[in-house]
Amino acid sequence: MDEKLYKKVKSVGVSSLVFGIITIAAGIGIGIVMLVNGARLLAHKSDTLF
Question: I need a surface site. Which of 11, 12, 31, 49 has the fewest CB within 10 A?
Answer without folding.
Answer: 49
